[in-house]
Amino acid sequence: MRGPRHGMLHGVERDYSLVLVVGEEDLLVDRAVADAVGTAREADPEADVHEVFGGSLAPGELAELAAPSLFGGRRVIVIRSAQDVAKGVLGEVTGYAKGLPPDVALVLVHAGGAKGKSLLDAVTQAGAHVITCPKVSKPSERVNFIRAEVRRAGGTITEDAARTLLDAVGNDLRELAGACGQLVSDTAGVVDGAAVARYHRGRAEVSGFTVADRAVEGRSADALEQLRWALTTGVSPVLITSALAQGLRSLSKVGSAPRNLRGPALARELGMPAWKVDRVRQQLRGWTGEGVARALKAVAEADAQVKGGGADPAYALERAIMEIAEARAFR
Question: Which of 133, 156, 176 is the last residue of a domain?
Fold first, then answer.
């Protein structure tokens, strides 16, 4: 879409004035369309942009949109929901895709799937530049999205902090993208768990699980730092002991799983997401069964203290974290 750029792929000539965006992830689709339009306007800042929906495209309308104006200039036509193009207009759209006028760029947005597949195939075969925007549905995919967003904004983020942010903000990609941009802006580009806790307070379970992850991994200094952030931002000590207990129970669960199971079969057996099984298996390094039992006992004692049995819940939690570190080293 930067003038007549061409390339070859598997013997098919690719013309980047013809772009096919396939998928249903709205944020990624909108970005792909914006990038395509932006590329056209780099070649011609005065390019006219027309957006229509496939279901409302009437016979002859595409020809009108593609017709040159009195002042000349490039035209960019965006057809959204192209899978809904009526049969009576299908031939016109595919005809333009196969032979675009030199000053016209055509961007088609197709949801994918069986509906409108003939148009999808025809435009692909015509040499379209295809951009796929599949749904980001798995937790691991969302974590990868967060890390890519932070890089896109010019920053870095640890995987643990990305998972914490996912739990704090939720699954909506637009909200996640906004949170990533804000965090990079507010932290000079280095986003860690403490930054996420600082800017997304009020998410008790997030901070609690962050403390637990650091503790069971033997990173007691980090765990204590996260604990202080959690308590400062109003996290209930009871939720932190609950997260510590759950983290240790996960170690026990994965550690005692049948040795002959791997991957999805192991995840199904344990009733846990595959990414979490992988994470817990990494956290198991350095632990013994007796060490896990000792750590669970320490957390149970801390739980009793934070529920009224002790005078200082913060001290009880700090002591539990140190005892978890000692239990991990126990042989």
Answer: 133
**Residue ranges making up the domain that contains 321:** 139-328
DSSP structure class, residue 102: T
Do 128 and 146 have their domain in common?
no
**pLDDT, tens digit (0-9, with 9 covering 90-100), for 232-289:** 767 788 889 988 998 899 898 888 888 777 777 777 777 777 777 888 888 988 899 8
- Per-residue pLDDT tens over the stretch 22-46: 998 988 999 999 999 988 888 888 8
Per-residue pLDDT band at 1 (split at 50, 70, 90)? very low
Do 248 and 320 belong together in one domain? Answer: yes
End-to-end CA distance of the chain: 64
Distance CA 302, CA 137 (A): 37
The total number of structural domains in the chain stands at 2
Furthest C-alpha separation in the chain: 84
d(CA 154, CA 152): 5
How many residues in the chain?
Answer: 331
- Residue/partner pairs of 92-96 with CB below 8 Å, 24 or more apart: 92/59, 92/60, 92/62, 92/63, 93/57, 93/62, 93/119, 93/123, 94/119, 94/122, 94/123, 94/126, 96/62, 96/66
What whole-number distance in Å separates Cα of residue 9 and Cα of residue 199?
A: 46
- Contact in structure between 251 and 259 (CB atoms under 8 Å): no
pLDDT by residue (tens digit) across 285-321? 889 989 999 999 999 999 999 887 667 899 999 999 9
Note whether 296 and 196 are same-domain residues.
Answer: yes
